[in-house]
Amino acid sequence: MPILETEDSTITSLKGIHLYHAGMSNCSMRVRLALEEKGLTWISHEVDLGHQENLEPWYLAIHPKGLVPALVHDGVPVTESNDILHYLEETFPNPALLSSNPALATEANEWVDLAASLHMKAIKTWVYGSTGGASKKRSDMMHYAEIQPDKSLVAFHTHSLDGFSAEEIETARKMLADVFDRMEARLKDNDYLTGDAQSLADIAWLPQYVLLNMLGFDFRPYPGILAWAKRQEQRPSYQRAVADWMPKVPNWVVRTGAKLMRFYRKLKPLRP
Fold first, then answer.
1. Cα dihedral 90, 92, 93, 95 sign
2. How many whole angstroms separate alpha carbon 224 and alpha carbon 235?
3. Distance between CA atoms of residues 115 and 113, nearest Å
4. Is 4 within the bounds of a domain?
5. Domain identity same for 151 and 84
6. Cα dihedral angle (139, 142, 146, 151), rounded to 10 degrees?
7. pLDDT by residue (tens digit) across 63-104?
8. Alpha-carbon span 250 to 266, nearest angstrom
9. Residues 68, 22: contact at Cβ < 8 Å?
10. CA distances from residue 156 to 66, 81, 127 in whole angstroms, order as listed
11. Three-state SS at 135
């Protein structure tokens, strides 16, 4: 578990639970959901990704990769959303988000790991490819490459600037469809992804649904997932962890904006 050892007094002096996060980040959503499901009091520090606040020295001292979210608990930073979920479950075991049944706990963890494994190669590829978006500017890439220790992230964001091919976007869509087929098979007769209660599995995949649905991924073939999402949206944690941080406009407005951005980028490729 990536718990960062630091002597930085601005970090070690923090008391309680501090979450550094971004509103529409799906990784941030899952950690906010876990905090709210556990009824924990936490202090919000919203990181402005648009102005690359995540790459400023003060934030890199908390998370050297410059990713969101990062959690600091009583002065100890914990990074990577999956590891934060497990840290919260181990540190604050009640209410439990993993079953006491070992088989169900293993199954839930497999769903969590699957979300992490598809984060770049399927979820972000489809999102960036479908919107024509890129989270970095060419003029910023040299600096990003210098400070980013994970060179796979550098390669991904460099490639995103050139745009993903139709084949790459379709491959990503198929990977996601395979997962949603599995989810549908489970959810058509069950309320939760594992067992008979909310778990880390639901928390890991609800943000993926929220983001992809907002940007126009076709969920019409998955009535079980749509019904599950409706139930999830009724939970008090959803309002505080997801809805309160989303754009205050209908999804169709976001989708229209994404289409216009894609059209604009085709007409005028990104310049240095």
1. negative
2. 17
3. 5
4. no
5. no
6. 100
7. 999 999 999 999 999 999 999 999 999 999 999 999 999 999
8. 25
9. yes
10. 15, 19, 13
11. coil
| Domain shared by 86 and 113, yes or no | no
Domain that holds residue 157: 102-267
Q: 141 is written with which tokens?
A: 């890439």
Cis status, amide bond into 69, omega within 30 of 0 = yes
| Residue in this structure with the two tokens 């989810």, named with its chain if needed | 183
- Distance of alpha carbon 262 from its chain centroid, rounded? 22
Tokens 């909310």 label which residue? 198
- Residues 81, 168: one domain? no
Note whether residue 97 is domain-resident: no
d(CA 129, CA 117): 18
Domain endpoint, select from 60, 91, 122: 91
- Do the Cβ atoms of 194 and 108 come closer than 8 Å? yes
Give the span between the Cα atoms of 265 and 132, in whole angstroms. Answer: 7
Q: Are residues 125 and 246 in the same domain?
A: yes
- Residue 238 and residue 135 share a domain: yes
Asked whether residue 233 falls in the same domain as residue 107, the answer is: yes
How many domains would you assign to the chain? 2
130-158: pLDDT as tens digits: 877 666 677 778 888 888 888 998 999 88
Does some domain include residue 20?
yes
Tell me: do 17 and 48 sit in the same domain: yes
Q: Which of 39, 49, 41 is nearest to 15 (CA)?
A: 41
What is the per-residue burial (b if ≥16 Cβ within 10 Å, else e) of 21-45? bbbbbbbbbbbbbbbbbbeeebeeb
